[in-house]
Amino acid sequence: MTRPASSSPPSVKEWRLELYLSEHDPDTTARIVLDTGENVLESHAEARRNPYDRAMPEIGDELAAGRALIAMGRRLLRAAAGDMKAVGADETETLAPLWLPRE
Predict the structure, then answer these.
(1) Which of 10, 40, 91, 94 has the fewest CB atoms in 10 Å of its CB?
(2) Are 81 and 94 within 8 A, CB to CB?
(3) Gene3D superfamilies under this entry (predicted)?
(4) In what order do the strands lie in the sheet with 16-24?
C-alpha cells in the first residue's frame, strides 16, 4: 500500500555523542556525553582485565565503550518513558525490563 505524498520536508536533527576512554591498567573507563541540543545525558562504564590475562587494551576499550553505550541507550529509554508519562500516554507493560533498577 502506498502513502500519500507529504508536503512537508523531512525533519533532520543532529545529536553529538562524545566518547572518552581512559586506561589505568588493569581498568578501562568509558564516559559518554550525548548532547541533543535540548538536553545533555551522560553515562559511564568500566572494564577490568583479569591480572592473569594478556594485556590487550583494545578489548578493554571495546568492553567499556559497549557497556557505556548500552547504559546510554537505557537512559534514553527512561527519558522517553518519563516524557510519555508526562504527556498522559497510556502505560504499556513490557515483557522484559528496558533497564536495570540500579542504573
Answers:
(1) 10
(2) no
(3) Rv1738
(4) 16-24, 27-35, 40-48
* Number of structural domains in the chain: 1
Query: How far out from the chain centre does Cα 70 lie?
Result: 5
Q: Calculate what percentage of the chain has a pLDDT beyond 90.
A: 61
Rounded Cα gap, residues 69 and 62, in angstroms: 10
Tell me the C-alpha distance between 85 and 90, whole Å.
7
The stretch 95-101 carries a mean pLDDT of 55
Residue 2's pLDDT band (boundaries 50, 70, 90)?
A: low
Considering the entire predicted model, what is its pTM?
A: 0.77
Instruction: Give a yes or no: residue 60 inside a domain.
Output: yes
Length of the chain: 103
Q: Which amino acid would we find at residue 85? A: K
Question: What residues contact residue 95 under an 8 Å CB cut-off, 6+ apart?
Answer: none
